[in-house]
Design a protein that fits this description.
The chain has about 325 residues and is of the alpha/beta class. It is about 40% helix and about 20% strand. The chain has 2 domains: about 160 residues, 3-Layer(aba) Sandwich (D-Maltodextrin-Binding Protein, domain 2); about 130 residues, 3-Layer(aba) Sandwich (D-Maltodextrin-Binding Protein, domain 2). The strands form 3 sheets. The chain has a 6-stranded mixed sheet with strand order 2-1-3-12-4-13, sandwiched between helices. Strands 7-6-8-5-9 form a 5-stranded mixed sheet, with helices on both faces.
Amino acid sequence: MTRRHASRCLALAAAALVPLLASPARAAWEPTKSVEIVVAAGPGGASDQMARMLQAAIQKHNLLKHPVVVSLKGGASGAEALMYMKSSEADPHKFLIAYSLIYTLPLAAKIPFDWRQLTPVSILAFDQFGLWVNADSPYKTVKDFTEAAKAAKPPFKMGGTGSKREDHILTAFVEKRTGAKFSYLPYKSGGEAATQLVGNHTAANVNNPSENLEIWRAGQARALCIFDKERIAYKTKVAGDLSWNDVPTCREQGLDVEYTMLRAMFLPGKVTPDQVAFYTDLFRKVSETPEFKDYMEKQALKPAFMTGPEMTAFLEKDDTLHKQLMTEAGFVAGTN
């Protein structure tokens, strides 16, 4: 091969490479229509409130080019939302705000659902629950309340969201730890449970902070304790001269019960890695907005950001824990 011929071959090869080098990289995936936030609960509860915050933050900061809509699918104690997501395989235009329902409802109701049929995206926060009474009640401490509950005939009414879910589980464990017996009343949402407490239709409830926030702030409810190993961190005054940090843990009050609940985002099953990456980035951006940080404090949530293998490992561990709790409480269908 002559030097001239070799040079000509090299030139032709270089020219052939130019279109490849100049062609743009494949565009990252993004939604092509409105995105649906699916809530497995009724209006006014913590999931509904969180969905509205996410919707507002996404729209205010233009994090999506298309509208965001909130769909409340609390039918059949939340099974409506779980089955809706299960039936939406490969649809990246909807995501579920998930909580402990993803473990407890399939066990309690034997619905054909497993959270592994969906696609985990991120955990954004954890809920801490509290034991609450009406502000006009005479009970100032957990001991006061549980001693009265043990002597009550008929039993005190305890309000909560749903049956054989986190609120019911907590009630069962308060019973086991104290010897008191309650008549548990399941409501459609934490908001409804709060309303029933204010109206003295229940003696107490085990709502999470966000669900009882407004009635606490209005002086209509009293927080006896928080079901966590540590007090809520926020020290800004919320209800009169009280901050969330002023509420003792239940363990401090002699009630050895601890429980926190995830707030996590799931896409339907069989979505693509590009789609998961888009929403992971979206929720990371949301978690950095002033609206999200303000919401975390006002609703007394523990912020977190967990994705990928770390999130999956947590879900597996949390699933096992809930199976143990449900079994011990006698809430697994077919075991009674």
